[in-house]
Amino acid sequence: MSEKLGVGVLGATGAVGQKFIKLLEGHPWFEVREVAASERTAGKRYADAVSWKQTSPIPPSVRDLEVQPCTPNLRSRIFFSGLDASIAGEAEEDLAKSGKIVLSNSRNHRLDEDVPLIIPELNADHLDLIPVQRAKRNLKGGAIVTNSNCSTMFLAMALGPLHKEFTVERVFVVTMQAVSGAGYPGVPSLDILGNVIPYIGGEEEKMEVETRKILGSFNGKGIDFADFAVSAQCNRVAVEDGHTEAVSVKIRRRTTPDEIAELWRSFCSVPQALGLPSAPEHPIVVMDSQDRPQPRFDVNICHGMSTIIGRIRLCPVLDFKFVLLGHNTIRGAAGASILNAELLKARGFLQS
Amino acid sequence: MSEKLGVGVLGATGAVGQKFIKLLEGHPWFEVREVAASERTAGKRYADAVSWKQTSPIPPSVRDLEVQPCTPNLRSRIFFSGLDASIAGEAEEDLAKSGKIVLSNSRNHRLDEDVPLIIPELNADHLDLIPVQRAKRNLKGGAIVTNSNCSTMFLAMALGPLHKEFTVERVFVVTMQAVSGAGYPGVPSLDILGNVIPYIGGEEEKMEVETRKILGSFNGKGIDFADFAVSAQCNRVAVEDGHTEAVSVKIRRRTTPDEIAELWRSFCSVPQALGLPSAPEHPIVVMDSQDRPQPRFDVNICHGMSTIIGRIRLCPVLDFKFVLLGHNTIRGAAGASILNAELLKARGFLQS
Amino acid sequence: MSEKLGVGVLGATGAVGQKFIKLLEGHPWFEVREVAASERTAGKRYADAVSWKQTSPIPPSVRDLEVQPCTPNLRSRIFFSGLDASIAGEAEEDLAKSGKIVLSNSRNHRLDEDVPLIIPELNADHLDLIPVQRAKRNLKGGAIVTNSNCSTMFLAMALGPLHKEFTVERVFVVTMQAVSGAGYPGVPSLDILGNVIPYIGGEEEKMEVETRKILGSFNGKGIDFADFAVSAQCNRVAVEDGHTEAVSVKIRRRTTPDEIAELWRSFCSVPQALGLPSAPEHPIVVMDSQDRPQPRFDVNICHGMSTIIGRIRLCPVLDFKFVLLGHNTIRGAAGASILNAELLKARGFLQS
Amino acid sequence: MSEKLGVGVLGATGAVGQKFIKLLEGHPWFEVREVAASERTAGKRYADAVSWKQTSPIPPSVRDLEVQPCTPNLRSRIFFSGLDASIAGEAEEDLAKSGKIVLSNSRNHRLDEDVPLIIPELNADHLDLIPVQRAKRNLKGGAIVTNSNCSTMFLAMALGPLHKEFTVERVFVVTMQAVSGAGYPGVPSLDILGNVIPYIGGEEEKMEVETRKILGSFNGKGIDFADFAVSAQCNRVAVEDGHTEAVSVKIRRRTTPDEIAELWRSFCSVPQALGLPSAPEHPIVVMDSQDRPQPRFDVNICHGMSTIIGRIRLCPVLDFKFVLLGHNTIRGAAGASILNAELLKARGFLQS
To answer: ipTM value of the model?
Structure first.
């Protein structure tokens, strides 16, 4: 058996679960040894239970795993959760109580006072909420660590360096989100071919709140949310992968588009310093061409782990406007959880 | 011969020109008797010169017209211009000088001090610029009257009643624009399938300036632009017809989403009062469903002549946000010019 | 109350059911007075039960109808059935037994020996199966009359005149079918954006068999299927409405593409002779342009009730090849049932 | 300077030219040292002349090359030609006359009696036409070697092993082709969104003839075309990359779908035996799932160099039907030329 840490995937047959399995194939630290899903598929061989929608085949080491039910009886210590929000809340909590560390993609616990909502480049220190969480919930070795909503991820990544350097005061964001963000089967083709759906349930609220928690500061007991207003409008468009966002910001300190571009280009942080395996070389990539980034051409830059920014310019209403793009199912979901797990390991939280 | 006014169409083989011909079929006041286009097609029968891209056939009365070159020798008095901006400037001016009235879709003269930029529901009184224009340019009976850029049209229509009632102070708008807005052949399929293009040349500037001219006031000699800031971000999406816009506004007077909705619903103006043939019964349609309007389902409401608004709600950064939709090639282009011509006729400007 | 015949719609909240309600709005003979759907929605107001996906609003006369369960207790005598095949078989049979006339879109009874599978232009005489059916099933006034699978409809329409005139011997057909053919939610967008799905469950078998029943002949007791082989390959493509089919045929008598085109152009039959309200003026429309028909531009010709054919040319393997197009949810589904009902009425089958 | 063979790319700024440059990046044998294009761009730096549409950046070694005009003055000995057919004929011939070896993607010379139309897995021996060509055209060291039309490539690949083993007698094929096959800007988005275009100029003729040349046999002086009829119908669909083809074949010897599947699965040929760098491990990949292959998910199997086949089953009209898929701009264009060049090198044709 390899020296790697065995991990489990919750919701393993779903869209996010599949992406976990794909991204963890050949991972230097982790190895998927357990897959769990709904009662309906429990007991089946993974390859028989899943409607595999990735472009590469099911990793051979996972094909024959027997799908387990999502109960605390699971054997792994570390779990990546792609569970649907309708069941994630309780299931993840039960696992944490039985000593498991759960890396969750679901919205259920993100805003819990004692649950860290982590983007390693921005708030690695929020992991200090783990002892708070363990004390409060009486967890023995278990923990829930969350990553943000997919659209929030890229917005927060762009705002993080700005906020640190210039203090963000107001943010406008309009998203044009890919259909893969809605999972599978997700958005019916009749709803999106030749169409824009100007509404994604709960998404605007998530962006308006999660961003402020991520960019908030740990005060020893909890997180003081960042003190700026975010206004989000979220739209679904006929794109397979990649959320595009049109952003406008007001900041306190005066600066220029060039200075902001340079700040983003040179941005490097904890995951890069620690050499985490999934850390993108450039967390933020700035493109110069006036009509980029575009999801179809740019979404896979740095293996889908970067936030791509372009069109930085003055805004007649706030201070600056720009366009950003990120891969919603990689950096915006499964890849984010994996990077969080790598941070946990590097920081010693995964030792038993 | 009918009692109708004969009109000519400039750029008759292009996308906007075709739409003029389609919309004018069976028009109660106007009849297309002359079609003009580039030298390359001049002399051909219209049906042979055009690559007809409308869903109904070429009107029989137009099929056999001989395509004319765009020169002042054209016979009609009234012209609808779908000319490309690269040639519209001079061609339209030459026609005006020779006594023609040109209803122009092109950007070239929209911001000329003496050229009215008209949306009949909002600024019918700006037609009073015509005598100014004639005096200044020494025109004998000729005139250039413009309608706005397509994206601007719907934004201005939404803002008009708001501005009159509550005074608009700031506007933030992000568009998701249909490919038909780029004409034909326009956007290559390889650029837009599964993609968003976050840039449309010159579009943001048009929205930021034209809106303020339209909602400005005539001071006897020219237009005092409306005094509010607009910030626009324009995107192309894989939609055939219909521009969707996510808007946020700050207004001076306090109000509520319900009051705004009611204001829009009950909005009626000059074209409705005059019973202009192309006037939509409801210039603004407000939809209640939380995920509407959507271009694929709603773009043809009121024959594509209305502005459709939904999701009116509070904005954490400015005051209110909402989504709007309009048919870019009908109300946003050819239909707008036709409505302007109807207004001109009703106001007596078309008498010779 | 109007003089119209009251009718019911089964599966009224589904995609086909909605299309029935839309197409029957303002119908000169029929009026929807009853809507039935699954137990889950029974008891609700129609407007509350349905997720309406048509581009025009729910007809006012239907909005407030209470959704009924699909049982023989329904009051109408005539039913249009858009029921899912999983339940249509028994439900339609029960209704027929209780004296109802069911116009069915479902595959369940199409191949029953005693059930007519009708395309009024091709086999109106197959209605003579109704007395056979009533005798065999001991029905008192009730009956089941079916229309074909959507892809089969257009193929049969093209083959019908050919078979009568020249005797069809072999048929090869490859379809490119719209997503609306799969109902709602139907095809997930992740499966079809930028994709072709080369498989539609059961569709090829339907085309290969139903075509031969439709073009068969009534022998006094049943239908002798037409004696030619059909080979079908069915694909789903990213088109909203309109099935395109590439067809090649071998026929017995020698002829030319021009003669075939003329045969199709001049084809008129029972529904046109009877002046049925939904009968297209031209059951078959032949287009000359070498790149037509195309679903996006041509699917609504003759209100979606025609079969559009183009590119008639010699085939190096069989005799002729051509392309055809039809509106799958109008002539290929709801419109077909309505035309069948009109035929029934004209032939006196709807008198009580 | 590296030990690699320097090569030039003709039509280097076009869609196929870009693909050559991308696929040749890091090639073990060849290195792009010269780029040629139209007069309009000649003299510019490549990065400035090109509108680069690949998902990875321009290779650094090519960025700064100066674009040359397409004349015999070019320095390289080996050229990959992505020239448009409107100029390829003469330009390629001129280069051959001046001693260059031209690997051509263009249709112009494919059917010349003395020009090999090569698919290395199927007819490597057709390279023996080169001496015939040199003699006939009085070429000193130069030669034109062509690869097939993109749609033909995959059909020929599927038919090759069948023909050798069972003797193909008749072939039906209907294609659903990606927009990238039309180059850039290529298909306007207004023509293909939500649409099928049932016509691609010249494509059907190419498939019907080229297939028979490729599978023909060299008789010492020329090629005896394979003696079977092909009937092709070609359609454009809204897919970015990957041509899907529905095929039906009649063969002389009796066999079963399983036997055919096994024949294809085990097919290996010259490029695999020679270990050519671009040779796919499996020239033909057979998929078992009933709804595959699909372009969006399967087009990149074996780096886009394989032909993917599925749904092998009996055909009621001919003998067998199946679906195939191939990457039109890789194996169907640039990758095919590169594999041909590798074969030429392995066979000693590139020694000076």
So the answer is: 0.96
Number of helices (H), then strands (E), belonging to chain B: the values are 13, 14
Task: Provide the β-strand partners of residue C8.
Answer: C34, C79
Q: Which of C26, C35, C37, C21 is nearest to C2 (CA)?
A: C26
Query: Could you tell me where in chain A the CATH 3.30.360.10 domains are found?
Result: 150-327
Please state, in angstroms and rounded to a whole number, the distance separating the CA atoms of residues C257 and A184.
Answer: 47
Write out the residue limits of the CATH 3.40.50.720 domain(s) in chain B.
5-148+334-346
Instruction: Output b/e per residue, B260-293; b: 16+ Cβ within 10 A.
Output: bbebbeebebbbbebebebbbebbbbbbeeebbb
Look up residue A90 and give its two tokens: 């309780």
Tokens found for residue D198: 């049932």
Give the count of beta carbons closer than 10 Å to the beta carbon of residue D27.
Answer: 17
CB–CB contact C317 D230 (8 Å): yes
CATH no. for A5-148+334-346: 3.40.50.720
- pLDDT score, position B351: 80
Among chain A residues, the shortest Cα distance to B324 is held by: A198
- CA distances B319 to A208, A320, B247, B253, D142, Å, are 15, 20, 11, 10, 73
* Nearest C-alpha neighbor of C104 from the set C129, C72, C78, C122: C78
> Is residue D216 helix, strand or coil?
coil
Nearest to C193 among B55, B194, B300 (CB): B194
CATH of domain D150-327: 3.30.360.10
Nearest of C136, C71, C158, C119 to residue C331 by alpha carbon: C119
A211: contact with B, CB 8 A cutoff: no
* Mean pLDDT for the stretch of residues C180-196: 96
The string of DSSP letters for A271-329 reads HHHHT-TT--S-SEEE--STT---HHHHTTGGGGTSEEEEEEEE-SSSSEEEEEEE-TT
Facing D229 at nearest CB: one of C171, C297, C317: C317
The whole-angstrom separation of Cα B335 and Cα B256 is 32
The pTM score is 0.96
Q: Does B262 touch chain C (CB under 8 A)?
A: no
Asked if the C150-328 domain carries CATH number 3.30.360.10, the reply is yes
The per-residue pLDDT for range A189-223, each reduced to its tens digit, is 999 999 999 999 999 999 999 999 999 999 999 99
At the fourth CATH level, which superfamily is domain D5-149+334-346? NAD(P)-binding Rossmann-like Domain (3.40.50.720)
**C294 touching B (Cβ < 8 Å):** no
